Amino acid sequence: MANATATAGMVSPHVPGMHAGGRDMARLGMVRCWRRARRGKVMCAAPPSSVNGDVLMGNDVSKPRRLPRVVGMGSKLIGCGSAVPKFEISNDDMAEIVETSDEWISVRTGIHKRRVLTGEESVKGLAIEAGKKALEMAHVEPDEVDLVILCTSTPDDLFGTGAQVHTALGCKNAWAFDATAACSGFLVGLITATRFIKGGGYKNVLVIGADSLSRYVDWTDRGTCILFGDGAGAVLVQATAAEEDGFLGFDVHSDGQGYRHLNAKTSVGGTEEVIPSTNGSINFPPKKPAFSFIQMNGKEVFRFAVSSVPRSIVASLEEAGLTNSDIDWLLLHQANWRIIDAVATRLQIPSEKIISNLANYGNTSAASIPLALDEAVRGGKVKGGDIIAASGFGAGLTWGSAIMRWQ
């Protein structure tokens, strides 16, 4: 770049096509540059290298930030809570349902038991219980909450359950909505909460992950039914001064090309007789809508997770200005121990720094990260000031990570 003076990775040349105060970027060789809005300086960064050279479906390489994050209020995690159904199914119980064994399941997944909704229990009920516990730990009254985000792919109502949860909790001054991103849901909700705080002036945001995938598994398919359990977890995210920000960096992605490897499609049939007024259409009116069982290509999902997740965490660490050695705890979506172990190995994080309760609950989807976090906090493992690298990944395909400091 002619006539450019570089200092600490920042240059101040005139770059054609880059408008002052705009969001335009230019690619110059292997360097990506952009002009910071209202500051007249051009920022440049080289794309990060991949982890072990792996490339999966789509363009899933974590790229440099398009623009620096907007400066505003910071966020901190000050409370957490969780809830699980009463009914427990062990691997030995599973062996009575499908052709399997405790050894077959535990060796391949790390799971020994899981909890499943029965009777009068519901996703709503689990979410309410987890939310109450988070508010109690945070010493925040329900009417002090500004927003409730229910992260779920299995709401009790097609139109969402978040508003019912926030009303039951007594968050009368808040509004609520559901966020659906499968097993990445909680991470998406957490990032969304920090953006409402940073850019919207919100003070207290309750983020709840709750799912009941047991409703959507084929209990005759040992490849999927052994994996999933039900549960809920919640955190209270509170505004703080920018210099005390505990949400240090994040990275998120999605790739629809991987949809075929993990999905639960809607299934709508036609009527047996053609109705005269439909102009001969055999698909109207449709039959009662339903979802198919969860369909998963385990090998492809494994490849996706162990290649994409480490790259995402590295990108989040770079934004936070930290390295692997700064991580106190690695908290991944609890899908399969082999995935967790492979990601930790690639990041060179020792096993004693891994938070996992997979053995007791299986894959609880959007609930898995906050459920594991709550147990680690209440068990005295996670302490104030600890740096946590969290990552969610799953159907969509979606994945991402966040670097955060507990309290």
From TrEMBL:
High-level lineage: Eukaryota, Viridiplantae, Streptophyta, Embryophyta, Tracheophyta
Protein name per Swiss-Prot or TrEMBL: beta-ketoacyl-[acyl-carrier-protein] synthase III
InterPro entries: ACP_syn_III_C (IPR013747), ACP_syn_III_N (IPR013751), FabH (IPR004655), Thiolase-like (IPR016039)
GO cellular component terms attached to this protein's record: chloroplast
Spans through the membrane: none
Protein keywords: Fatty acid biosynthesis, Fatty acid metabolism, Lipid biosynthesis, Lipid metabolism, Transferase
Its job: Catalyzes the condensation reaction of fatty acid synthesis by the addition to an acyl acceptor of two carbons from malonyl-ACP. KAS III catalyzes the first condensation reaction which initiates fatty acid synthesis and may therefore play a role in governing the total rate of fatty acid production. Possesses both acetoacetyl-ACP synthase and acetyl transacylase activities.
Keyword Membrane: no
